[in-house]
Each structure stands twice: as structure tokens, then as C-alpha cells.
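Narrative of activities, Objective 1.

The group set out to show that a structural description can be obtained from nothing but a protein's sequence at a throughput compatible with the screening campaign. Below is one input-output pair from the validation batch, recorded exactly as produced.
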Amino acid sequence: MRVVGLKGLALLGASMMLAVGCGEGSQAECESFSDCSGETPWCAPEQTCEALPPGHQIGVGDGSPGTVILEEVYATERSMELTDLAFNPAEENELWLLRREHPSDEPCEEGNATAAGCGALEGSTTTIKNFGTADEEVIVKVDPNAWHFMRRPPAMAFGDNGFWATVGEERTANFLDGQADFMGPVLWSADLTIHGEEPPPGLNGSHFDMLHNAPYGMGIAHEVDNVYWVFNGMYGSLDRTDFGEDHGVGESDHTDGKVLRYVNGELSRVEGVPSHMKLDKETRLLYVADTGNSRIVRLNIDAGDLGAPITLPNYDGISVYDHMDGAQLEDIVPAGLLEQPSGLALHEGVMFVSDQATGKLHAFTLDGEHLRELDTGLGAGALAGIVISPVDGSLYLVHQREGKLYRVDVIL
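Output recorded for this entry:
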């Protein structure tokens, strides 16, 4: 358990008035949070009891120690990284965590491969069923060919059809001295009797599809069916990637895939730091942590016109592989406040962002107004993926470097 103090909140330092009938209505006067209750538990800066404000999941603060507690709720069974997390929308209270090994200096090149060097490229998952209950069940899965299909994964996203997808932060999915820039997003089943299990003879891993077109993938977000948006770190672009009809477990026909490349060269990655992204499916606006440019941007995914074909090698033989012209990124949080934005979550009109360089959590309106911040005290290199639980409404975050999962508990 880590007790955390709040900083930079507008309500700090306000003088307090004597409580009179607090908790009975939204305008009851208060001196501290203890004077408020029920549907109006927050002692607002105006010294009245109010409903919890937007972004309260990272604290509302009264300046006293213990306002926020970081509660450690999971740690990997050995030293490794956690980069992302997501709740499976098809299962009640089932949390998935994305894991990868720490980087290794050992070689993984053709003719000079070591078990340590190649093994460090493998990612894996932890699935926690009945998360946070007495019936909690923890299941760790490693794909039989994780070396290829789940290579150093920084991000994951669930679809609404029983599938989910990852990207890989590497140039190639083969030996590291291979000439082809052969890494790209991978489609997986959320069925744990399939995912991470040995496929029938002659098949390759438990994946359901892959497109080898997005080296140094840093983030991913679901749109519809088997369509995902990918942060392509090599080309600084957002790629709308449609896997098409999945090819079945362990198969290899990728030819029905489609890729449209947006805002080519306008994004920038930071090595080792995930760049998470979320699509607001109602407004059709894609929010992106542009880590290397220290900002949050968004893209209207319906904007743009079909441009020239992408001339780089088409390893999968797909028929649609084109640039999209005319779409523009909108700066929502310009560079200045954030240093290395990484985690990103949307919840009830609030955008939550984690900054890996500072160890701070931030809450913004969807148009970029800064609501509040929390210094977790975890320091640089810690914060990556974040999510708001659909069950308890709390914010959960991963400590990337230490492989730990925390819940932010707001104490009123």
C-alpha cells in the first residue's frame, strides 16, 4: 500500500467554513469531507457538499495525507514488465494484463541466437477471472510461438466479437538481423481454451490473424468487427488495419487484410514507452498519446480521402494498402504539461492520461481542459496502461518496470 498526496488541484488551500447540515443537499455547507455523505460526498472549494467532480478517480483532495492510496493488487510471478491492461467486454469482471520480458543484451540473430536473447522477445498475458473477489483466478498464458506473434507487446485492445489484438515494439518478427521490416498487429481469441494453447499439427501458434505492416507498433484501438487502429512507430502514422475474416487458429492466409495509412510522419515514439490510444465510438474521434511529441492528439477517423498506394513491400499480398490524404491531427493537450504521455483511458467524458517521465496521472476534459493531477510517487519509467473498471469504477494502472498492478483508492 502506498499513501499518495495530491498536488496541483484547484481546491487545495481553500478556507473552510463550519458545517451545517452537510450531506442533506447539494448546497449544504462543509468544513471537510467528513461533513458530507450520500450522493454529495465531496466538500467542494465553495465549501458546499457536492457530487464527485469529473476526474475524481485520481482524487479530489483536501490537502491532508492519505487522501489517495495506491493499493498493489497483483505482481508478476517473476521480474518482468507490464505494459497494458483491459477488461474483457464479453465476460463480467475479467481483467487481462499484457506482459513482456525485460530487454536483453544477448543476441537473437540468425546463426548467433541465444535462448536468453530470443526469449526476451516473448510477450505473454495474465487473465484474472472474478477480479478482486474471493473467487479470483489467475491464469498466465504464453503463445506457442510468442517469439513471432507476441513480440515485445506494448499495447492491446479488445473487440466486441470475442477477439482482441496486440502490436509489437520491434522491427521484425523473425531473427533481429532479418532484412524485412516484418512486424505488425496480431489478432487473438479471448477464449482461454484456445489462446496460448498448442494448435493442431501443422499450424503456427494460437493467433487468428496477422498483418506484417506496422514495425515498432506502440498503441492499438478497436473500431468495429476486426478493424483496429495502430500507432505505427516506424512511419509515425496511424494505420487503419482491417484483418478481414480471421484465417482460423494457426493459419497463415492474410490476403484479405486492408491497411489505410493516416497522418504519415506526424507521430513520434519513445523507445520502450507504450503510446496508448482510445476511440470514442460515438463521436468517431481517436485519442492518441503522441509520446515522442509530448502531447495528446485526436483524429476524426471519417476524415480524409484515398491517396496514393503505399510503395513499401506488401508482405501479405493485401489488395488495399494505401495512404489517406487530408486527415488532420488536432492537438488536444499540446506539448508543455506532459513529458511522455503513455496510458490513456476515456470514461464518462473524462480523458485520463499517465505520464511515464513524471509518474503523474492527469485528468482532462475531452477537449483538453486540465481537471486535476496526481503524483503517484512511482517515478520515471513506471506508468503505462491505465483503465477504469466497469465493475467498481476505480482507476487501475500498471507499473511497467516492476510488473505490478495498482488500484487508486480515493479516501473521502
